[in-house]
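A protein record pairs a chain with a discrete description of its three-dimensional fold. The following entry can be read in just this way.
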Amino acid sequence: MALSDCNHCWETPCSCGYEYKSWPLDKKLKLAAAILDVTPDKLKNTILPAVKSADGVSGSLCRGIGGTYFFRVYHDHEKFTDYELLHSDLNITIEDSDAFFYSTNVSAVLDHSPETLLNNTQRDMT
């Protein structure tokens, strides 16, 4: 008979989680599901992400309020999913006739066409 269930915190049952570190994921999910009184499948679908390839997916690169960028993918006409950008070197192809590069000796910028910028400036001045 052991003095305790855990060799780390010495409590019965273990209260620090050390005992569960080496457990396989399915066993951890069963334990958590029992504690939360839900099915293991429901818990798994809640905490584990669905994974699918993004290769070939069309969407829009958008800039949010704080200046951070995200990738928006539309489903049907009104529904969409915004994805946080974590990929470090994502290849993109620009398919927007209103997108133009502006380059000087000190900067390079991708923005709307000169016509769009001029029209927006004139509209803002009125």
User: Anything to note?
Assistant: Strands lie at 60-63, 69-75, 79-84, 99-103, 108-112. The chain has two domains: 1-49, 60-125.
